[in-house]
Amino acid sequence: MGSSRGHICWKWGSPLRRLTGFSRLLSTAALGPQICVVGSGPAGFYTAQHLLKHHRLARVDIYEKLPVPFGLVRFGVAPDHPEVKVSTYRVENVINTFTQTAHSDRCAYYGNVTIGKDVTVKELQRAYHAVVLSYGAEDNRILGIPGENLLGVYSARAFVGWYNGLPENRDLKPDLSSETAMVLGQGNVALDVARVLLSPLDVLRKTDITEGSLAAIACSKVKRVWLVGRRGPLQVAFTIKELREMINLPGTRPLLDPADFTGLGDVIKDVPRPRKRLTELMVKSALEKPGEKEASRWASATKEWGLKFRRSPLEVLPAADGKQARGIRMAVTRLEGSGESARAVPTGEVEELECGLILSSIGYRSLPLDSLIPFDPKLGIIPNSLGRVQGAPGLYCSGWVKRGPTGVIITTMNDSFDTAQSVLEDLQTGVLNLSNSKEGFESVRSILHSRGVHPVTFSDWEKIDAAEVARGKLAGKPREKIVDPQEMLQLVSH
Ligand code: FAD
Ligand code: NAP
Question: pTM of this prediction?
Answer without folding.
Answer: 0.94
